[in-house]
Design goal:
Keywords: Hydrolase. The protein is α/β, with parallel strands linked by helices and about 190 residues long. It contains eight helices and six strands. The radius of gyration is 16 Å and the shape is globular. Bound molecules: magnesium ion.
Length: about 190
Amino acid sequence: MRLGFDIDDTLINLREHAFHIYNKKLGQEIGLEVFNALTKVEIHEPFGMTAEEGSQMWKNSLEEVYYTNCPAFPGAVELLQELDRQGHEIFYITARFKEHGERTKKWLLEHGFPVHDERFFWGMKDHEKVNIIKQLHLDFYFDDKPEILKTLSKDAVKVYLKDQSYNRDVNMPRIVNWPEYQAFIKQLEK
Ligand SMILES: [Mg+2]
């Protein structure tokens, strides 16, 4: 099978990692229950920031957010390793900016994700992901953003939403927790 994965907030818990970094940088201790109740992708509001301040904070924190010890979601690394061992083709499709491509690839490898150079795509806008996904003739594609999956819903690729607090109102097949290999394959066959 050909399986495509978004990275941030699909395979790795990037926003929560960033939330901890914001707390630390701003000397605050805002609890995870606040994070878990967010209905938007952006995380700045609980810190009392405007959209503009939030966007600046994100930019200023990006180096730390991307390249420190952001945890993968439980089971994600193990599942992708097993898919790779079983001969399935794993594609990564991330909207991280051009300048972050090579380092992101290296980071993924260092954290145990199986990456093949020719199956790693980055630097496109969210709404441009659809073109790459179509060209790759994927069987399955996984992302946390419903807007991206909706652009694909009429195509042959079967899409799954990675469950997040900001996408719970969307009715789509979803992955709540990354299952083990056998359970995952069973879920895809449904
Ligand atoms: Mg994402």
